[in-house]
Amino acid sequence: MILEELTAFSNLYGSNEDLVLAGGGNTSAKDGNLMYIKASGTQLATITADGFVAMDRAKLAETLTKEYPADDDAREAMVLADLNNARMPDQGSKRPSVETVLHSLFEQRFVLHLHPSVVNGVTCSQQGRAAAEMLIKHPFIWVDACKPGYVLSKICADELARFKVENGCPCDLVFLANHGVFFASDTVEGLGKLLEEVLASIRAAIVREPDFSTGAFDGEKAEKCFAAIRKLYGEDCVITYEPSVEALRFAETPESAAILMKPFSPDHLVYCKQFQAYGFCDGCLPGAVKRCLEEHGYMPKIIIISGCGFFAVDETAKGSQTAADLFNDAIKVAVYAESFGGAKPMSDALSDFIANWEVESYRSKKHEGEE
């Protein structure tokens, strides 16, 4: 029964593109010491009961009291091994979510973790916590941007314990700066009610919605950009072109595009890479791509061109479209954040950690390999 409920609300929220894109978001359900959580590489929209990993909560709790190395690589390797060892028998190669320990910390039966652009308009904004405190009447915990996985779980363990002492009840709502939001409830209906309450509270304060209708783009320049991209990336590369009103507005100058040149959240980094390229014309495009390759070691997935909007490039149609979808999501976040003091990308240090984090690399590869 519990797996049926978990699968049903995972599919419900996962199929809503305003709430979940690509492999983003996570869900879990508890039954005493047993917890089922979405396996890495699966998608909420299509997940079945077999897509969840059964975890031993007692073993998960042990990770919070264990001493790990200070070195990021050594620590994360050990934590990942402990997470895999916390799987119940007969789970095969299914890999638990990087936020498994955090899910287990919530006392409520069900947990829903999402990264909606509307919510991230606040969590990725300059006002951040102050805006949330002004808008959200429901008691919540705010966690400043930090390394995901083990570090985040340790911080949340302390915050959840503090909340319970101060409020006399367990917390059911946690906002993560430059990341997303956690909802928790003993019922599926409770999750939905809390989700709608939060979304409505934020939407009421949003000044404007992003305009994704086709804008007045320079068709001749766009065609030249297509040719330049194929020359650089190869004739077999797949290009998704986005000349929306909003994309054109941000692409107008280097200054207007600057806020989109770095990721707001892990999802944007995983699917669009850490840095984008910008140019005024097709003639500038090769130089912009070359600079990204020389400075960061890869050719950009997103190329922003004044008068054209942006181009998402990948080896596959799915990879190209996913990158475009996530970059459009970043545009949404930037627009919504205008209502809360402007957007605030992740710090370079946090972006570097996630970019080099083996777990997130795995998530991206698994998604690209799905059918």
List the helices and strands and how they pair.
Elements: H1 2-14, E1 26-31, E2 34-38, E3 52-56, H2 57-62, H3 72-85, H4 100-105, E4 110-114, H5 117-123, H6 129-135, E5 141-143, H7 150-167, E6 173-176, E7 180-185, H8 188-203, H9 219-233, E8 238-242, H10 245-251, H11 254-257, H12 266-272, E9 277-279, H13 285-296, E10 302-305, E11 309-314, H14 317-337, H15 348-355, H16 358-368
Parallel strand pairs: 5-6, 9-10
Antiparallel strand pairs: 1-2, 1-4, 2-3, 4-7, 6-7, 8-11, 10-11
Helix pairs in contact: 5-14, 12-14
Would you kindly provide a written description of the structure presented here, covering whatever features stand out?
The chain is of the alpha+beta class and 371 residues long. It has two domains: 2-203, L-fuculose-1-phosphate Aldolase; 219-368, 3-Layer(aba) Sandwich (L-fuculose-1-phosphate Aldolase). The protein is built from 16 helices and eleven strands. The strands form two sheets. A seven-stranded mixed β-sheet has the order 3-2-1-4-7-6-5, sandwiched between helices. Strands 8-11-10-9 form a four-stranded mixed β-sheet. β6 and β7 form a beta hairpin. α5 packs across α14 and α12 (266-272) runs antiparallel to α14 (317-337). It is globular, with a radius of gyration of 21 Å. The protein starts with a helix and ends with a helix. The model is unreliable at 360-364 and 366-371 (pLDDT under 50).
